[in-house]
Structures are given as C-alpha cells and as structure tokens.
Amino acid sequence: MNKYKSLAKNTAIFAIGTFGSKILSFIMVFFYSRAMQTDEFGLLDIIINSASLLLPIAMLGITNAVIRFGLDDDYKKQDVFTTGLVSVGIGFGILLLASPLIMLVDDLKDYIVLFYAHILMSALRHVCSYFVRSDNKTKLYAADGIFSTFMTCALTIIFLIPLQMGIVGYMLAIIIADFCSVLFLIFSSKAYKNISFSKLNFAVTKQMIRFSLPLMPTSLLWWVVNVSDRYFVKYMIGNSANGLYAASYKIPTVLTLVSAIFLDAWQISAVSENKSKSRNEFYSDIFKSFQGAIFVVGSVLILTAKLVTKLLLAESYYASWQYIPTLIFATVYSCFVVFMGNIYLAQKKNVATLLTTVAGAVTNLLLNGILIYFMGVQGAAVATCISYFVVYAARAIDIKRKDKDMHLSSYRVLINSFIMLVQTVIMILEVPFWLPLQIVCLCVTIIFNYKMLIELVKKILKKD
Hints:
The protein is an all-alpha fold.
C-alpha cells in the first residue's frame, strides 16, 4: 500500500470511529449551557484548564515518547508501555507533594479531590491511548473514542440535569469515563501483557524520558497559548465574561475535531515515512492539501457562526458569537502548528518544538494584558490568533531552513489568510450585506484550493 493510501486508510478509520463521538461531544454544549449559568460555566472552565496545565507534569511529558518509540521497531512494546506507566506514577507523586500550594488557589480548594482524580485518570488514559496507536491498533483506538464519549455524555446528562450536581457532576462524569476507558484499552488491546515493572529496561526508560523532558515545558507553554487568556479575562473582566468566552471556544472546536481526525493518522505517517527518501515530497504534498482543506472548513464556520451559536447555546450565551470568527482564525493556525509539530516529533527535534512554543507563549502573555485592556474579551481572541501565527511562522521558517526541498506552500497560506482576515472583519463589524460578502469569500476560498485537494485524491487512488 502506498504512503498516501496508508494515510487515507488510517484517516478513514479514525473518522468512522471518532467523528460521531466528537460531534456528540460538541452537541453536549447544548446541555452544558442550559444546566449552568455563565459564571458557573466560567469557574468550571478555570478548573478544567488548570488541570490541563498540570497534566504534562503528571505524565512527565511521556505521551509523545510512547508513540514515537512505540512506532520504532528498535524498541520493545513492553519497555515503552511500562516506562509510560512509571512516568505517570512519578509525575503524579510530584503533584501530590505540591498539593498544599494548589490548595491555596481559591477556585480549586473546594474541588481538590476531584481535581487530582481527574488529572490521574486523564494521564493514564493518554498513555494507554497513545500506546494503542503506536501498536497500530487504530480500530481499537477509534472504538475507544466512541465508548469514552458515550460514557462521558451519558454521565454528564445524568449528573447535570436530573441530579443537578453542577461542577461536581461534570467532573465526576469525566473521571468515571476516563477510568472506564483505561480499563477498556488495557484489556481490549491486551496491553497488560506489556506491563513488567520488574523487567524495566532502564536504558530505554532513560532514552524516553530524555526525549520527553523538553516536551514537558513545551506542553506547559502550550497551555499558556491555549488557556492563559481565560485567566486574563476572568481576573480583568469577571467570571461571567469568561463563561461567554469559554462558550465561544466551542464552535472553533469543530475545526479542531475535524483536523484531529486527520492529524492522528498523520502522526503515524510522519514517523513511518521519516526515513524515506521521498519524505520531503510526501510532507509537502500533504501540507499543501491540508492547509487548503482547513481554510475551507474555517471559512464555512465563520459564515455560520451566528446561526450555530443561536441553535447550540442558550440565549444568555448568544453574545459569544462575536469572538468566534477570530478564534476560528486562531484555530486554523493551531492546526498548522500541530501538523508541523508531528514533523518535529518524527525527526526528534524537541528543542525546536520548545523554542518555537516559547515564542508563542511570550507573545500571548504580552498581548493578552495589552489587548484585553483596550479591546475587552475580543482582545484575548486576537492575542491567541497572533500567538498561533507566530508559532506557525517560526516553525515554517525553521523547517524550510533545515530542509530546503520541503515546500510548505507559504504563499498559499498567506493568500488564504488574507481572505479569511477579510471574512473575519466583515463578520465582527457586521458590515452591510455581510451575508452575501461572506458567501463570496467562501466561494473564493474553495476555488483557490480545490485543485490541490483533487491532486491528492488522484495520488491516493493511484495504483501501487
């Protein structure tokens, strides 16, 4: 099977197995927004995202090492999986020692037990799911996506609506679903056969941790880019404003979900093709088509932002639509950043990953304080967008400098970005005849990109 068909096959498996579950998760916003007030939703957002800040510490950044080393035939599966579990044990132990400090945070102290349980179950699920992917059990990975999402949604509805448990109910639903997912993955994949603490290969463990440690601060810095704006909004404007801002993130999540299906498959292909002589040509072809598809989907989401917000969210959240176009623009660049991050992962360029992420995090922190002061909540969205662009630009320049025959379609990205910028401004300012102008922008985006998508389809259908 050629590399294009292999990528398409894995993407199809992930799509069949996870698209429905991801869409179901997206639709759950309908229930969240009706079961919680904006200030309660804002507090929940702070708790969940605080957990995401500490999650890399609980895992010692090991998940990327699990998939990178797991896909490499030079390493035994037993050594890789056992090291992953040991890393979680060490990392979570470090977090437990830091509990007195975490208790000082007012928003967390009343939920500290659930907070720690959520981190532990999430860390274990990450390690198990990445190991299953590294073992090329893509169908099982996709099945777990369906199972986990069904459990989360069912439990959330029960805890939030009839039991009216609010934040506690939401967190319990996630914790129980993650625990069930861990059991499902370990026993369905027979991963338990690859657990042997007594026979741990310390040489492999040392290599994996050395690979992972630069990724731990990278994950923390990504948290700054992804989440710190919520804290700025909360403390500069208030919980209610942060609730609206958190709700506005749900629509761009559609783009993240769609791209994640492909990027999960791409991660496997990027590592598998890393030693191929035609690697750069393959990477270039895929990115050219990927960026076109992402801009088209993003354009559709901007066009429908008001309608989707009205249908999906409670009336008290409707004002959140005005932040959606900017956040979609930011999400487009975040998809490119993840794509390039998988190239770094395949080539074990963790220092480059770290340095480019530092650039985005510093930009985000500087701009959040300034832009929120002058522009309010919209300033947080703009800061996020610019930060992602900075990381995208830094990685594109770095990759091109080191691999001159790799082409990342920079001029196409810039043209598409200009069209989307126009579309974003038109939407936010609600200029006269905004709807037909939005449709024109969408049509131009499709016309500019459709040929690249057709070329990729031809390569996939080409006989071996």
